[in-house]
Amino acid sequence: MLVLVSSAAWGQAAPARSLTSPGGSQIYSRPEAAAADQQARRIPIAGAGAGLEGALAGSYQLGPGDSLAVGIWGPSPITYPLVVTLEGTVIVPAVGELPVDGLTLEEARARIRKGLLTQFHNVDITISLIGLRRFQVHVLGQVTHPGTYLATAVDRVSACVGWAGDFLPNAGQRNIAVMSGDSVRAHADLFAFLRRGIDVSNPRLHDGDIVYVPYARERFSVLGAVNEPRSFEYLQGDRFQEALSFAGGFAADAYPDTIEVARYLGPDRHPVRFYVIAGGGIVAARPADEPHLPATVGRFLAHDFSGRGGEAPVYPDFELQPDDIVFVRAIPEYRIKRLVEVEGEVIYPGQYPINEGETRISDVIRRAGGVTDEAFLKEATLVRREAIRLEDKEFERLKTVPPADMTSDEYEYFKLRSRENRGLMVVDFHALLLEGDQGQNLLLRHGDLISIPKTRGFVSVLGMVAAPGNVIYEEGLTAHDYLRRAGGFAEKADRRKTRVIRAATGEWVSLNEAERIQTGDTVWVPEKRDRDYWAFFRDFIQVTTQIVTIYLVVDTAVGN
């Protein structure tokens, strides 16, 4: 019984410690957080889950530290634990020491049951694995925290890489060496395991394993219309169809009929392109234009990989080479949304898809439910946002030039461009929607904005009037009527320069030219400029003096 207690105590987690070289320098160490994690990773079999149960079925090999539970079921049931000792045996009461190291769980059950049946009769015997042994493994190379960690016999390479803080950016994930002693007993391809769940690519750990993560050296690329376009670590034996699966398969906009492959051949790294045809073979890229290719290259490119086993695959499959670039083309303009926006006084404002070259203004207004009763069509606008992005280099240059340094033409151009509503298209929505003028029914383009404002219902009277503000619109009133309702001209009003600004066009017209006032129009009364009479008199005297002086000079010259 003393032996059992000692063995059970040995099976408990050992305290974390650093490993040192004979000279005393530290080789590997495990941080305290990792040690705590290892202490928490003791895995009891009961309730461990379906995944662990599947991992142990029939193939688990016992070793020092594994714990068994024996049940002898008869008139007086007996249960007790067994722990595999350092020597690889179990001490069975009333039977003695039985070697079990390296046996599978089923083989160990049969040996222990055979020994117990020599001492017990007419009983049922159950033997269960209740605790896993723990041992040291060393994780080295391109991981965040290389060192020594405690593992169990059901842990895999992916687990110990996680304990070591995961891969460094330049780590090779596909050719991880698992060494036992001086030899490599297995290789792990964790990229393939994580992508496709292949167990053989993620072997289980053994006692004393050294897991070495190398640098990633060679790569190939899958680009274009795939779900994950990027470069991948190359492993000897990688194949074309496998590369497509690494990239997540085709994207929705992929054009999979023909896939281009670029490759560098020979010691001089000669570049060559060829095409992989769906359901067909491999075709060289313009072979007539590349007569200098080596003969072996020509034979390779002419080879047809489609006839394998009498069944043609979707694509001919072949082995990739380092630095290969697989490019999947995309269908031009696949599912590109062509949208216009309608805002303001329509029943259903929002964005609407269009077919460029087909959809017109009236089509979109109709789909938007038509205009509301409060729509003011005379101020409705169509802004072509595409035109806003067009650069006017001359206007941008004039922005940096002081007005005094501009020529008269430059200044006039600068003023006009400054007042311009960029992107505004000339459309009379009133004529289009109420009078049916199809000449105004422009074709729409992606990004266009149709804006239909609400009827204002008033006329603005601003500037030098007694009560500037908005006056309720009434059909038939003139500009003078609205001026009177705003209290009339102020004392400093410049009546002769009073203007009406049309809401529909932005045009400025004089009072005499403004025959009818429309809702939304603005009546603008500017301020009369103060006259400096003294300055006027001074200038008059100065000019008069100059004229008299010139007259006297001329008269004197003629008299002489």
Estimated helix fraction: 10-25%
Mean pLDDT over the full residue set: 77
- CATH homologous superfamily annotation of the largest domain: wza like domain
Q: Could you give the distance between the termini?
A: 154 Å
Query: What count of helical segments does DSSP give?
Result: 15
Point out poorly predicted stretches: 1-51, 286-313
Secondary-structure content class: alpha+beta
Shape: elongated
- Report the CATH topology name of the largest domain: wza like fold
- How large, in whole angstroms, is the Cα Rg? 46 Å
CATH class of the largest domain: Alpha Beta
- Strand order, main sheet: write it out: 14-13-18-15-16-17
Write down how many β-strands occur, each being a DSSP E stretch of 2 or more residues.
28
Question: What is the count of structural domains?
Answer: 4
Largest sheet: 6 strands, mixed
Properties at a glance:
single chain, 560 residues, alpha+beta, wza like fold, Outer membrane lipoprotein wza fold like, 4 domains, 5-stranded mixed sheet, 15 helices
Provide structural commentary:
It is a single chain. The protein is of the alpha+beta class. The protein has four domains: 2-134, wza like fold, CATH 3.30.1950; 219-330, Outer membrane lipoprotein wza fold like, CATH 3.10.560; 339-452, Outer membrane lipoprotein wza domain like (Outer membrane lipoprotein wza fold like); 458-525, Roll (Outer membrane lipoprotein wza fold like), CATH 3.10.560. Helices cover 24% and strands 25% of the residues. Strands 14-13-18-15-16-17 form a six-stranded mixed beta sheet, with helices on one face. Strands 9-8-12-10-11 form a five-stranded mixed beta sheet. The protein has a five-stranded mixed beta sheet with strand order 20-19-23-21-22, with helices on one face. β13 and β14 form a beta hairpin. The protein is elongated. The N and C termini lie far apart (154 Å). Residues 1-51 and 286-313 have low confidence and may be disordered.
